[in-house]
Write a structure and sequence with these properties.
The complex is a heterodimer of chains A (429) and B (102). By secondary structure, chain A is an alpha/beta fold. In chain A, 28% of the residues lie in helices and 25% in strands. Chain A has eleven helices and 23 strands. Chain B has 102 residues and is an all-alpha fold. Classes of the chains: A alpha/beta (429), B mainly alpha (102). The interface between A and B is large, with 58 and 44 residues.
């Protein structure tokens, strides 16, 4: 009995990092840090995945080995890409590298495609032929687009009808289409039913295109075909901008769900048979979690979004796999935003540092901030704070927190640009 | 032997209490990382427009956060965000950022 107690006590003390014979004060034990160790693989290097990789290294004092697998060698930011489309920003300013994650934080960054994941063997296979084993896997795949939901939006149509809803080549291509359009032409943008990536994004894009038309092609028109019944974010602020800055330029049609596109006629058709013609068609199809998440059967909610445990971000279906960012089935009123994705990255990093130290993950609190640019200088925001509710098992908006700007301002335009520089640096720097 | 057993019980129960407390509170470094999206990692802002809060005086930071929360200090987004944090969390934020290198 005595020996048993002694050995139990010794194991307990060793487990918390104290050798025998050390004086032990109650409460001191938990304050002593225990190094987190293990291997984490992150798939996807956007706002969610890159943040998770950086903060895992930072908070584990480099104890956790982190491998980030990302198919492209650089990242093109979706936030602020509407300014490139409006002619208010240089495309190059959207581009971020993984150099700081590699050099400063010691993340192993591999530019290749994931071909398969074996959750039982805890192993990730890549197109390069290499295999990466993990203790925990983070999947941060962003969104992919459901072109099949719109008749005629096939691979050929996608060459000329753009979405530009991921930062990258389409951002520049849409800008070129607008530049090539004649004055007096019509730009048609369609918005899918929520949830989709970046709720205020389409309406900000309308502002940016209107800003360009007003200066360069003042006889041109903008048609907004929204599958939703109203503007999905900052409604009053966007409406005010459309009335005050761009009067007579914007034709907004709520409850207009695009279900078909005809590239040769430049025609879109709704589910009830209404049609619209445009010179530049910018069609945003419905969205879902990225392909790799679908392949791994992580998209358990309507086969579109990944359900997660909101303390650890662990998948509701596949153990030891954590899903973060836009692919997650969002908590109530939690937007799919770059800011939120960064906060998901920190939540999973904090949880995994605890778990890989043999402790329990702590609860979470996430804040969201989304700025939109209404022209070249005026900005507006929407914000919210989401605290985990243990009874509901989901983060909920703290009553009274958050809100929107009361009106557009130049100071918030400056904050919007400052926010972008800061979040790029916090995520990739 | 009884002394040893009772000592084990004391250690085990104090661990249990500490663990329970740890599970209820947000971790300070995690809590503070909420702010980094705008104010930079550890409060070191990479831009002029967003203030660096790393290495600021603790009391000054705390007064400022509390004033945003009470409405005494005006702002665009900070008064709205501060409604989401309790006073103990504001103190932890002031502790954290005041002890970071500028």
């Amino acid at each position: 009995m005595k020996n048993h107690i002694d050995s139990t006590r010794r194991r307990l003390l060793q487990a918390i990092g104290i050798g025998s014979g050390t004086a032990l004060l109650p409460g001191l034990a938990m304050a002593l840090p225990r190094q987190a160790t293990g291997k984490v693989v992150v798939i996807g290097g956007g706002f969610a995945g890159a943040t998770a990789a950086k903060y895992l290294r930072k908070w584990s004092n480099n104890g956790i080995e982190v491998t980030l697998i990302e198919r492209t060698p650089t990242y093109v930011s979706c936030p602020m890409s509407n300014e490139v489309i409006g002619g208010n920003r240089d495309y190059k300013s959207l581009v971020r590298t993984y150099d700081a994650l590699k050099k400063h934080w010691g993340v192993t960054v591999v530019n290749t495609e994931v071909t398969s994941v074996d959750p039982l063997a805890k192993s990730v296979k890549t197109a390069s032929g290499r295999e990466y084993t993990y203790d925990r896997l983070i999947v941060a795949p962003g969104i992919d687009l459901m072109f099949d939901e719109i008749k005629g939006y096939d691979a050929n149509a996608q060459k000329t009808v753009l979405h530009a809803w991921k930062g990258g080549p389409q951002t520049l291509a849409l800008r070129k289409q607008l530049e090539a359009m004649k004055d007096g032409g019509t730009y048609v943008i369609s918005i899918p039913k929520a949830p989709y990536r970046c709720p205020p994004g389409p309406y900000e894009r309308v502002c940016q295109v209107a800003f360009y038309f007003k200066k360069n092609k003042p006889a041109s028109k903008i048609v907004v075909l929204d599958a939703n019944d109203s503007i999905q974010s900052k409604g009053k602020l966007f409406q005010a901008a459309w009335n005050n800055y761009y009067a007579g330029m914007i034709d907004y049609r709520p409850n207009w769900n695009v279900t078909e596109v005809d590239v040769s006629k430049k025609l879109v058709t709704s589910e009830v048979g209404d049609t619209f013609k445009g010179d530049v068609l910018n069609i945003l199809p419905p969205m879902r979690g990225g392909d790799i998440a679908r392949k791994m059967n992580l998209l358990n909610i309507n086969q579109r979004w990944a359900g997660v445990d909101w303390v650890t971000m662990e998948s509701a279906v596949v153990p030891n796999v954590h899903v973060i960012g836009d692919a997650v089935f969002a908590a109530p009123q939690m937007p799919k935003s770059g800011h939120m994705a960064n906060q998901h990255g920190k939540a999973v990093a904090s949880a995994l540092v605890e778990i890989l130290s043999g402790r329990e993950a702590s609860p979470i609190l996430m804040a969201n901030t989304c700025y939109s640019m209404l022209d070249d200088v005026h900005g507006v925001h929407v914000a919210s704070v989401h605290r985990y509710n243990p009874e509901a098992k989901v983060p909920q908006i703290v009553p009274g927190s958050g809100g929107t700007s009361t009106e557009a301002s130049m100071i918030e335009g400056r904050y919007a640009h400052g926010w972008a520089d800061s979040i790029w640096s916090d995520t990739f720097g | 032997m009884f002394r040893r057993i009772s000592m084990f019980v004391v250690i085990a129960s104090s661990l249990a209490i500490s663990a329970a407390q740890a599970a209820d509170d947000l971790k300070p470094n995690y809590l503070a990382s909420n702010c980094a999206n705008c104010h930079g990692t550890d409060g070191r802002s990479p831009t002029e427009i967003m203030p660096t809060i790393a290495g600021e005086d603790r009391q000054k930071l705390l007064d400022s956060l509390r004033a945003y929360k009470s409405g005494e200090r005006h702002g665009t987004i900070m008064p709205q965000l501060m409604q989401g944090y309790n006073d103990s969390e504001l103190q932890q934020l002031a502790d954290y950022f005041s002890t970071q290198k500028k």
